[in-house]
Specification:
single chain; alpha+beta; Nucleotidyltransferase, domain 5; 2 domains; five-stranded mixed sheet; 10 helices; 18 strands; disordered N terminus
Amino acid sequence: MFKFGFGQDIGIDLGTATVIAYVKGRGIVLREPSVVAVDKNTGNVLAVGKEARRMLGRTPGNIVATRPLRDGVISDYTVTEKMLKYFINRVCGRFLFAPRIMICIPSQVTEVEKKAVIDAASQAGARRVYLIEEPIAAAIGAGIDIAKPCGNMVVDIGGGTTDIAVISLGGSVVSSSLKVAGDKFDEAIVKYMKKKHNIMIGERTAEDLKVNIGCVYPKIQDVEMEVRGRDLLTGLPKTLQIKSSDMMEALIEPAMMIVDAVHSILERTPPELVSDISDKGIYMTGGGCLLDGLDKLLQEKTGINVMIAQDSVSCVALGTGKALDSLDALEGKEKI
């Protein structure tokens, strides 16, 4: 039995860390890590999403668990295509007609990178592929009316990229895409643990530290978390108590890079729009903006009120989904 007929529309937030799919009329139907486990010998996909994420760093020689997207762009085309095909089939079931798909991309990608996304989605079964810039999708998802002639600033911090844009009249006036986001925060924690405590931890442990006790602004009360890793001196397992103040020391450098990028965008923004932004504030979206104290740090350094959007993790996917309603009128689209 066919689940859907003609005109199936899907919006996909093809994130470095997570893929979120939105189906017109049904809302968000899929939220999975962008991880794929592949058998090196046969090239077969063994697991996708949550199941594959559990395999990261724990696979035997013939199985590779990889993230096919790095820094917001496709780094492994074949695996991305297989991952998209798996997710589209899961969302649509069997379809009578191939779906139209809108995918969001970082604001500063090259034509080659855009073409890779379009080709991967087409090969995965899309009838038509449209592209939308992440900050614009994030703004729509955050409930901002982007069609008005007034400035709105959106800072979307994902897994691979931070996209900053000043939006007016439905398009980006000034924008920047920075390869400093959730992944770089994790890397900073791994480096810090190695340098300060002589202990080697994996990416997943670093992410747990970031989520549970990570901060970039002094906390009223220091919190602790137990961490297990490999002692670099003895090569044996070691357990440590790590404080949130340690995490602040580890994370402040990448956080300041984001703050500096916001500052440089404000410098390039026309004065009329800057006054709109200082009235309305800066909107933060994406999973990375949930890092404790990042909004306070940005507010302190810019002197502008900073707001974290409601359901910030899903903003880009929701915006991509809402943009499906006005496919032909939307700016920044790419169509086959």
